[in-house]
Amino acid sequence: MYFDLLFILLPLVLGYLVVVQSESWLHRVNQYCGYMVYFILFLMGISLSLIDNFSANASQVVWHAAVFMVAILGANLIGLYVLDRWHRQRIQQTRDVQIDKLPMIIESISLLGVVALGFVIGLFFSLDKAIIDSASEWALMVLLALIGISLRNSGIALREIVLNKSGMQIAIVVMITSWLGGSAAAKLVGLPALHGLAVSSGFGWYSLSGILISDGISPLLGAVALISDLGRELVAIFVIPLMIAAKRHSAIGIGGATSMDFTLPIIQKTGGSDAVPIAIVSGFILSVMAPLCMLFFINF
Q: Which of 13, 89, 98, 234 has its CA 20 to 30 A from that of 138?
């Protein structure tokens, strides 16, 4: 467990120590993050193709992913609704905002397409599983280093995180309810509770949850985590504009770790500038906690 923890923390910490002054270089870092996500998912698709009788298990993977997604999102929404009721706050919604969801939907679906491409290539070419696994590990380390750089240069100071109570509360509620939902889903599909806790600890970070759980438990469960977290992202795209005016915490929290990057533009456009710091802080905390929690439950 300690080696795995070092494997995750070292590149994150090293990346976090890098200060980027140039906006163009920071833009490149974010671009390379995207490239590495696609590369890792491509390798994951190849790994799935190397599993004996994967096609026989494909329907089970989709079923398990659907159960996990519904259970985790359901638990999240209940917890976040309670948080909204406790705060009884409303946020002024930007009026007459038209959001083109299609490009975001296409981008999310394209990630599954990359996994499928890797799967097809793995079927037609003889590839060494050890080499694929090693390449996945190195690619993940590079991605984590880039994520560290991105987090350091996102403009969030530790003081801002500590003082932003709403962002912290959202992150805590999402973590606890995700574990409750993941545990319930694991029981429903007949998996060990720890596996359910590991899958639910992705908090929407699909590329990381997919590869970590593939390496730590099994590629099949890694595929479940990937599909579940991608499904969460697609749901968030549609739900955030509908909820954010009346239920700010629920709308921000439903995006999980993506609230500081992928779903942030939607939050900003429909929720106004006041929602942005809350979304960034909650997404930041969940992004930091996701790898630590997954490794803990994988190795417990």
A: 234
pTM: 0.76
Distance CA 171, CA 197 (A): 16
DSSP string, 214-257: HHHT-HHHHHHHHHHHHHHHHHHHHHHHHHTTT-HHHHHHTTGG
What is the model's pLDDT at position 2? Answer: 47
What ranges do the domains of the chain cover? 2-299
Residue 194 backbone dihedrals phi, psi, to 5 degrees: -65, -35
Residue 259 is given by DSSP the state: G
Residues 6+ apart with CB under 8 A from 118: 41, 42, 43, 44, 45, 46, 47, 48, 49
Q: List Cα–Cα distances, 52 to 48, 60, 122, 189, in angstroms.
A: 9, 15, 12, 21
Closest CA to 175 of 282, 67, 41: 282
Report d(CA 238, CA 119) in Å as an integer: 29
Mean pLDDT of 155-164: 64
CA–CA distance, 161 with 159 (Å, rounded to integer): 5
Q: What angle do CA 42, 47, 48 make, to 5 degrees?
A: 95
- The CATH code for residues 2-299 is 1.20.1530
